[in-house]
Amino acid sequence: MGDALALASDVASCDLFQSESVRGAVYFYRGEFVGAINHFENALKAMPSDDPTKRNLADAYLAVGRSSEALATINLVTDRNNLWTYKIAKIYFYRNKLEEAKELIISVPTQLTEDGNLPGKPRILQAAIAIEISKSKTGADRDALVADAENQFKQGVATDSEKWKNILKYVHSTKHESFIKECESLKNYINLWID
Residue 53 contacts by C-beta under 8 Å, 6 or more apart in sequence? Predict the structure, then answer.
């Protein structure tokens, strides 16, 4: 990671926005979310209209449990595309607004790759939402939600099964990345559902 920080120092000579954006990304992917927040906030001050920085800052806020700030920040994004819808659904999921999250996530294509180039994330989120909703149900209603979650999960994993198997194993065992709540919701099912 030292190379990445050295790169960020080199980028510092470009301009403040680029430098702070790169530093924020480095801190985020190192799991140092508070540092990422500081750098993304600085980048956003330098270029307030930059939608990717707003999304990155919202992700960092969400990773440290600041879901209100995450929601306020993502709502500043001007390009309300599938990625925006995915991010809003994820924030709602983290805020336990499960029905709202469910309504949003079903419209996001499985192949969405703008968020880390990993297709399938919308279906994994949809599976986690279904599992959380199922906890308040009984009998056939609960069983139907669990079956739907399994279907959504398998659709997501099928987009790149080897990569997903490694990610789910890594995230589940180390509790790293901002994907933790989804894995926590699915922890009793991951090993059963991965072929």
Answer: 21, 24, 40, 43, 44, 47
Mention every residue, 6+ apart, whose C-beta is less than 8 A from residue 128. 93, 149, 181, 182, 185, 186
Phi, psi at residue 108, to the nearest 5°?
A: -90, 125
Which domain covers residue 70, as residue numbers? 1-79
Tell me what pLDDT residue 81 has.
Answer: 94
pLDDT (mean) for 149-177 = 79
**If you average pLDDT over every residue of the chain, what do you get?**
88
Q: Looking at the structure, tell me whether residues 96 and 27 fall in a common domain.
A: no
Residue 122 tokens read as 């919308």
- Could you say which of 62, 79, 96 is where a domain stops? 79
Same domain, 114 and 67: no
pTM of the model: 0.87
Q: What is the pLDDT of residue 190?
A: 87
Higher pLDDT, 2 or 143: 143
